[in-house]
Amino acid sequence: MRYYLLQIIVDVWPTIRGPYKSPLTRDKAALRIKAKIGNEDGIFKLDCPSSNNTKGMKPVVSAYSSEFMERVTGKDF
Fold this sequence. Notes:
Layout: E1 2-9, E2 13-20, H1 23-37, E3 42-48, E4 60-63, H2 66-73
Antiparallel strand pairs: 1-2, 1-3, 3-4
C-alpha cells in the first residue's frame, strides 16, 4: 500500500501529498499541515495499491476525526 494525503485547498482545489513511508509518517505530516493552515483546507488519508498485481483494488479516501487532531496537537480546529 502507498500512503498519501489528499488536501483540498480552500475546499476547492485537490492536491495530493506524498507518498509517505507509513501511516504514522503520513499522520504526522497531516498534523503539521493542519497546525499551519487551521480549518482553511480539508485533509484526508489516501491509501493506494502499491503494485500492478492488485487487480480490483481501488484507492481509499478516509477522514481524520477532530478528536485525533485535538488529542495529538492540543488545539481545537
